[in-house]
Every structure is written in structure tokens, then in C-alpha cells.
Amino acid sequence: MHTYVPILCAAMLAGAAAFAAEPARQKVILDTDMVEGFDDGVAMLLLANSPAIDLIGVTTVAGNTWAQEGVAYALRQLEVQGRPVPVFEGALRPLRPGRQDMLDAERALCGMGHDSWVGCFGTEEPDSWQAVYRERYGEEPSSQPDDRHAVEFIIDAVRANPHQVTIAAVGPCTNLALALRQAPDIAPLIKRVVYMGGSFFKPGNVTPAAEFNWWFDPEAARIAVRAPIPEQIVFGLDVCEKLTLKAADFHTLLDVVDKPYADLLRTTFLGGNFLGDPDHTFFIWDVLVAAMLLDESLITEEVTHPIDINDSFGLSYGQSLAYPGHGPAGSKPARIVLTIDEERFWAIVLDPASWKR
Ligand code: RIB
Ligand code: CA
Predict the structure, then answer these.
(1) What is the pTM assigned to this prediction?
(2) How far apart are CA 336 and CA 53, in angstroms?
(3) Cα of 257 to ligand 2 centre, how many Å?
(4) Are 311 and 224 in contact (CB under 8 A)?
(5) Which of 36, 69, 205, 295 could form a disulfide with 115 if both were Cys (CB 3.0 to 4.6 A apart)?
(6) C-beta of 283 in contact with ligand 1 (< 6 A)
């Protein structure tokens, strides 16, 4: 009897120590206009595989790609990585009715920035995610998205995990805005939103005034950044356009990821560009958000200001504004990231030891 007590105590202490040593994993929802590989796909690679992150869901939204395409691309990339993260189809179009039909008029009115990219507005909407999957991969999917709509999932997940969920909003903010409109109670229950969006101290990309994600759905971005969310961190073009992916980095990534994912990356549009042109470079916006979630100390320079988005349909439609003085009534403060530690960023992205289980 006496011998069992110390053994039992030692076992309990060891169990407690093991339990105490287990770091809490950050719950993250990746809200994305998903593409294969760079940039949304590689952001998902880091988050889905990192032992520090509990990626509780991937929600797709129209932006770079149609939300249906986003589902197909998210499922396929998770399948080849063997990471069964739930995927949810989200908003099929932005909040402003007829936004896509007004594109020509908008271009005539607002002109264009250094990037003529209009995302999914430049392609035909697919019939379904299944149609995209079959056409792109030539076979049936081995996984399915969840039945719930992305907006419903965001609301449920935040309510079920109060003050614990980080939303990485790396596409247009339509899903987030719809969730906040439908369930305003979730705003203070979200832990934080980390956006890739906007451009505060330099020109936009789609127009001189606006960055793509927040240009695609300015009304939604305005609802999101004005909500009483405890913390908002913004990776705009201010920081994202400081870093470019070079062909050598792309080749390193091909060498370090598992073969099925490397094979997929090679067949993407961007992969073709890198394989065909050793001087090709590309911005990798959303990957900065994912890397920062793995290591917040990557941020080396930031400012905090109230921010807002111009959602009046005119010359500066979609412009993001930071107010060094006080902001307009209803605006909320956000941390605007200006610089990250580039060397450590690449060390994270290109070394699976930093993000692989
Ligand atoms: O403007 C860059 C942003 O637009 C990135 O999130 C990119 O993935 C696209 O969504
Ligand atoms: Ca994106």
C-alpha cells in the first residue's frame, strides 16, 4: 500500500507536468478568397500544419476566386496535406447590389491602379465547387465542405469559444460583415481580427485609392473595422508590398514541402511563372498574416490609429483611411503593421520545422 502512494503521486505529477507543458493552441478561422499556393493557400499551409495553431475552420468568400472555387482549392490542398480542417462555403458576392455589373462604369469613373486584377469578376461564376474540383483535378473529391454556411459557422464558433477565436481575414470582409450584422453580440466575443487589407500610407493596387480585398467589398470592410472587436491588426500594402517572393524562394519551398503539395504548386499559374522565369517576383500578402500568427514578435514597427473605409461610390471607393488625430464617429482603433523582420519571416515560411507538426 505504502509503495503505491508515491508511485501514484509521481504518475499524477508527471501527468500534470505534461499537461502544464502543453502550450495552448490559438484557435483561428481563416476567412479567405482561396487560391492554390500563393498567397492564401500557403497561408493555409502554415496555419493548418502548425502545432501552435488550432485551425478550426476555413471559410471561403468571393474575391480572388469565386467562393465555390475557394472551396475546391481549399479541400484539395488540405487533402494532399492530410489535414482534415473543416471548410465552409461563404458569400458569393459583395454587399453592394450589382457591384460586378457596375465594373466598367467604375473603371471609367475611378481609373486603375498598378494592378489591373479584378479577381473573380474577370471570370465566369462556376456552377458549384464540385464542378471546379472535377474540372481542375480530373477526379472526385475525397472530402466535402461542411453543410453550414460560412457566416453561420463564424457566429457559432465565436459564441462557443468566447474571447478565444482569432479571425484571419485575408480576403474581402463579406462573411465577417454578414456575421456581425446578423449577430452583433459576437463582436466583443471575438479575440481579434487580423486583416490583410487596405493601404494607409501608400497608393492602393486596384486603384490609386484602394487595395484589392477592401476594394472588392468596401461596405463589408467598413462594417468589420467599425465593429467593437477587442483587437484589430491590419497588414495593408504598407507592409505587404515590402516583401516579394523570388524564384529561388519558390524553389526552396518546392523542396521542403511534401511531394504531393509541391506537385500541386508546380501546376499553378504562379508556379508556371516561376518555373519559366528565374527573375519572376510576386507579392505574398496573406502569408505575412499567417507567419505573424505563428510568431507575433515578427512585427517590428506599427502604429495604432482609428481607421475607416470609404464606401461612397466615387473616385476613392474602397480607400482605407488612418486618422492620426481622432477618427470619424464610430471608427475604431487598429494596429497598422508597417514593418516585419524579413529575415525571420523567410526563416519561418521556408523551414517546415517552424510550422510542421
Ligand atoms: O491585395 C492583396 C490581397 O488580394 C491578398 O489577400 C490577395 O490574396 C488578394 O485577396
Ligand atoms: Ca487573399
Answers:
(1) 0.94
(2) 23
(3) 21
(4) no
(5) 205
(6) no
Which residues does 11 contact at the CB level (< 8 Å), separation at least 6?
none
Span 140-197, pLDDT tens digits? 999 999 999 999 999 999 999 999 999 999 999 999 999 999 999 999 999 999 999 9
Contact 211 CB / ligand 1 (< 6 Å): yes
CA 5 to chain centre: 51
Q: How far apart are CA 275 and CA 318, in angstroms?
A: 35
- Please provide the distance, in angstroms rounded to a whole number, between the alpha carbons at the two ends of the chain: 42
CA atoms of 41 and 52, how far apart (whole Å): 18
Could you say which DSSP state residue 285 is in?
H
Residue 170 Cα: closest atom of ligand 1: 6
- DSSP helix, strand, coil percent of the chain (3-state; round to 5): 45, 15, 40
Q: Which atom of ligand 1 is nearest to the CA of 33?
A: 10
Atom of ligand 1 minimally distant from the CA of 212: 1
**Residue 165 to residue 161: CA distance in whole angstroms:** 7
Residue 66 contacts by C-beta under 8 Å, 6 or more apart in sequence?
A: 92, 120, 123, 125, 126, 132
**339 backbone dihedrals φ, ψ, rounded to 5°:** -145, 145
Give the residues across from 345 on adjacent strands: none
Summarised one tens digit per residue, pLDDT across range 88-99 is 999 999 999 999
Distance CA 235, CA 286 (A): 8
289 CA to centre of ligand 2 in angstroms:
10
Interstrand relation of 165-169 and 244-246 (parallel, antiparallel or unpaired) = unpaired
Q: State the distance from the centre of ligand 1 to the C-alpha of 16, rounded, in angstroms.
A: 44
| ω into 263 cis (within 30 of 0) | no
Contact assessment for residue 339 and residue 300, using Cβ atoms and an 8 Å cutoff = yes
* Helix and strand numbers, DSSP H then E, in the chain: 15, 11
d(CA 333, CA 307): 6
DSSP letter assigned to residue 189:
G
Q: Does 238 contact ligand 1 (Cβ within 6 A)?
A: no
Beta bridge partners of 55: 28
